[in-house]
């Protein structure tokens, strides 16, 4: 990945990301060159896990419930304090003061994503974060794209193109978080980059193992590996209309959740829980492979990031599913491109903060379906 040279004017920004996996906050302090959109490097990184109570409440807010306006506001305040702890840890690691940081780019925690109805909701209290950190905060990145008729997501393909694009080479960057999304970098720059949410990533896997074993995730896919894939159930899951819809498209917990899965399982009541886990792993792998084969058949490499990379069973099944499509792309981590896989999304929001400060667009209309390029985010001065 291109990095700022000593001759490039550089600003420092922080990117904070808490995704649909609801496991915690990833943070990156980055040096961004102001004269070239491709030049950025991480100086420090931090991870702050969510306490069980906050995670439970954020998960509960995904669906309508009693007194949810007040509950969301209180969760947003708690989340801002959590973000502030991550910022403090980043500054301590790098030896920087708040006054040296130009801005924090923070995604917020998605609790509703309904672009077809013209809105998205990332709970957050950026004003409180600005107060706690003493740093300007840029937040609410999705809304401007939705106002322009777009999906508001995924937003990372523009960063993937800037950071990982290689002239003359078709690459795929696949982020496997709660939801999986792909960025297709065709080697011609932003004009040729595309991407979309392919379907569930870790979301259903985590929910199923939590229900049956009380664990937050399936370490290395070991529980799934102990089961047997149900071909019949897999085919039922693959009939979800979202998977066949053409991009631009984005999704989240509004569609893929345990109630959705329970509905599909009605005809499979005798299936062992471990076999369901095995099938859900195959489902995530198959939907990713199908999307890559359909929209990036000439890609030479697939670079993985996000927590799903650490699920060995999932990665193996993805490779096998690509081979079944006669797709010969090499599957590897974004680490080989210079960015550790758990830093990619946080680094993207440090980059988006830089783009906002320069009043440069952060979306790709070919990805989101927006009517054009837009500057993303809203500023909350400290």
Description:
This protein has 382 residues and is of the alpha/beta class. The chain has 2 domains: 10-154 and 342-380, Nucleotidyltransferase, domain 5 (2-Layer Sandwich), CATH 3.30.420; 156-337, Nucleotidyltransferase, domain 5 (2-Layer Sandwich). Helix content is 38%, strand content 20%. It is built from 14 helices and 13 strands. It has helices spanning 52-60, 68-94, 126-133, 142-147, 156-164, 203-213, 222-225, 231-237, 241-244, 258-264, 273-295, 312-324, 344-357, 365-368, and strands spanning 10-17, 24-33, 40-49, 103-106, 109-114, 119-123, 137-139, 171-176, 179-185, 194-200, 301-305, 330-333, 378-380. The strands form 3 sheets. A 6-stranded mixed beta sheet has the order 3-2-1-4-7-13. Strand 8 and strand 9 form a beta hairpin. Helix 2 (68-94) runs parallel beside helix 3. The relative contact order is 0.17. The mean pLDDT is 94.
Summarize the structure.
By secondary structure, the protein is of the alpha/beta class. It has 14 helices and 13 strands. It folds into two domains: 10-154 and 342-380, 2-Layer Sandwich (Nucleotidyltransferase, domain 5); 156-337, 2-Layer Sandwich (Nucleotidyltransferase, domain 5).
State the separation between the terminal residues, measured CA to CA: 31 Å
Largest β sheet strand count, sense and barrel closure: 6 strands, mixed
Low-confidence stretches: none
Name the CATH homologous superfamily of the largest domain. Answer: ATPase, nucleotide binding domain
Name given to the CATH architecture of the largest domain: 2-Layer Sandwich
Helix content: 25-40%
Integer-rounded radius of gyration: 20 Å
Strand content: 15-25%
What's the CATH topology label of the largest domain? Nucleotidyltransferase, domain 5
The tally of domains stands at 2
**Largest beta sheet: what is the strand line-up?**
3-2-1-4-7-13
Query: Helices and strands: which structural class?
Result: alpha/beta
Note the total helix count: 14
Q: What is the general shape?
A: globular
Which series of helices and strands comes N to C?
A: EEEHHEEEHEHHEEEHHHHHHEHEHHE
Beta strands, count: 13
Overall pLDDT metric: 94
Text of the CATH class of the largest domain: Alpha Beta
